[in-house]
Amino acid sequence: MNKVRHVLGISGGKDSAALAIYLKNLYPLLDIEYYSSDTGKELDETYQLITNLEVYLGKSIQILKAAENSHEDPFDHFLKMYNGFLPSSNARWCTKKLKLEPFERFVGNDPVVSYVGIRGDEDREGYISRKSNIQSIFPFRRNMWSEDVIEKFLANERQAEVMNLLDGFDFGAQKSKFEQILVKPLSVTFHEHQKLNQLLDLGTKETNHLIYAFLKTTNYPLALDSAYFPLLDNEDNLIRDDIFRILEDSGVGVPAYYKKVDFQVGGRTSAYARSRSGCYFCFFQQKIEWIWLYEQHPELYLKAMTYEKDGYTWMQNESLEELIATDRMKQVKEDYAKKQEKMLTKKSSFLVDILDEEEGMGCASCFI
């Protein structure tokens, strides 16, 4: 059996960078391999962050590129293959070709533990490989296990097996409470997340150790690793503010595109920023983020415009050329400023509110 590899993907975003720093500081004995998938269409700040991280980590970050033998950037190479058909939320070939496939080639058939920077204040699961040799771990969340692991662990048909494992633990006075929760079967009125949260409320460390004991009966990569897994005792639940603090305190710094830039429109003062790393023309951008790109990186906006042809546009029902018409830009900015004023009265964070509910969180692989 090959050695179990521990890997962490650096997207150029805040969360994956903070996770690399966090794991180095708290778990320095973990031998983690760092990688980044380069589409050839990243902002300069992304490459700067990778450089800063390499200095801090004292390790190189391996750059993965799709279509390595092509004379074009990976995105342009595959765009031709798709006959100019731009990726979209319904046809995310960029994720598959530029992110997932290079990653899966990088790990091959080795058993792999992949660390993913989804925070405790995010309601999404993130990328889970269909390959059985890749297991995802989420250290920032109270529940660090992936959905597939929890589903198996809490399955009604596994109840007797899990109860037998519980007999091997000394949870003190809490043990009977664990038993009460574990013997209660899942049903339409008692679903998986309720059961898991009840266990975590009793004890995160205890729940982790029990799940790990269950994993040792499976073929998950962690079951094949002879080394003790130190994250079992981790009880952290990190949110957005924690991420910015980790980046600032380390000296690595927050990528410049997350920092708010003031603008004025219709007598109002507001501020915008980019909410994501990844390609500068990411189709998951909110319209205000496209305008940020136009005003902060006009040369990249114009490049993004050149991809729109033959009826293909980055946004539904509106081209980039239409978006930057004077009246249209003013309207988008005013609508955004009004929304910000309304949200700020509810004491919401700017960087949370910038995401538009209609466009969602986008590509999980681009936000790790």
Overall geometric form:
globular
Strand count: 7
Q: How would you classify the quaternary structure? A: single chain
Structurally, how many domains make up the residues? Answer: 3
Give the helix tally: 16
CATH class of the largest domain: Alpha Beta
Instruction: Give the helices and strands as they follow along the chain.
Output: EHEHEHHEEHHHHHHHEEHHHHH
Q: What value does the average pLDDT take?
A: 91
Helix content: 40-55%
The biggest beta sheet reads: 5 strands, parallel
**Level-2 CATH architecture of the largest domain:** 3-Layer(aba) Sandwich
As for the CATH topology of the largest domain, it is Rossmann fold
Which residues sit in consecutive blocks of at least 5 with pLDDT less than 50?
348-362, 364-368
Distance between the termini: 28 Å
**Fourth CATH level, the homologous superfamily of the largest domain:** HUPs
The radius of gyration over CA amounts to: 23 Å
Strand content: 5-15%
What do these coordinates show?
- By secondary structure, the chain is an alpha/beta fold.
- The chain has 3 domains: 5-142 and 236-250, 3-Layer(aba) Sandwich (Rossmann fold); 147-235, no CATH class; 260-358, no CATH class.
- Helices cover 43% and strands 9% of the residues.
- It has 16 helices and 7 strands.
- The chain has helices spanning 14-26, 44-57, 74-81, 93-107, 147-153, 159-166, 175-183, 192-202, 204-215, 221-224, 240-250, 287-296, 298-306, 320-323, 326-344, 350-353, and strands spanning 5-9, 32-37, 61-64, 112-115, 134-137, 261-265, 268-272.
- Helix 1 (14-26) packs parallel to helix 2 (44-57), helix 1 (14-26) crosses helix 11 (240-250) and helix 6 (159-166) runs antiparallel to helix 7.
- It is globular.
- The two termini are 28 Å apart.
